[in-house]
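Task 17 of the worksheet. Students: predict the tertiary structure of the chain below and write it out as structure tokens. Keep your answer in the requested format; marks are given for formatting as well as content.
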Amino acid sequence: MILLKALTFDEDGFIATLTIKHPPANALTFNMFDEISDILDMIEEQNKVKVIIIKGDGKFFSAGADVKQFTSYQNETDYESLANKGQQLFDRMEHFQIPIIASIHGAALGGGLELALGCHIRIVTEDAKLGLPELTLGIIPGYGGTQRLPQLVGPAKAYEMILTGATIDGIEAERLGLANHVVAEEDLHNETMKLAKNIAEKSRVSINRVMELIPYAKSEQFSTGIDAEAKAFAKIFGTAGAKEGIQAFMEKRKPNFQN
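Model answer:
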């Protein structure tokens, strides 16, 4: 039995649901990465589940990484290890032999959106807010966002979203290809389960083979880009801009970036 602190895990037949429970905004913590990894280990060992759903409890999917924890790190090596930890988990999710559906309501921002990007399918509510606002804190996405977002929405839109930190709603997310389906919030659970059950009716062997094959379509440059992202993420934290951005976030004020 896995001891979970910030997540809950439930099974209903061949469908497993992992719920983020870290109020008030379901911010991702370093320990949460370990808990998700432990759950994936258990699912692989039991070889029963055919579909996994990831969702957030309360008002949010996940409003991002827990910025307060960033202040406990001291040097580039620490920050690069942090980026690698998130990247490795989301890469494992993307290459997992069981499809993972992100069921998104409220905010999916920063690391929260990167978590969703690591899933295979995304269902969003109409008024959900999705974005990578890291540059507003003087930092950059570090969990694969600079590589996965352009694959889904195209480079031009990815430049705009990341450079401005602007969010999009669920309707635009579907239009851009970031979301598979957009639904009313009251329909999110039922529509997510409907899709999960449709997949779970299929042969386990067939599902597993498809999950192995589709990732081959990814560009050969992806692994290079992910590695470069982790190194850039680490270097950014040593800059005055990052220090000002994080301090401003903690103090709930607008940052004053000096060029």
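Marker's comment: Residues 7-184 form a domain with the 2-enoyl-CoA Hydratase; Chain A, domain 1 fold (CATH 3.90.226.10). The chain has a mean pLDDT of 94.
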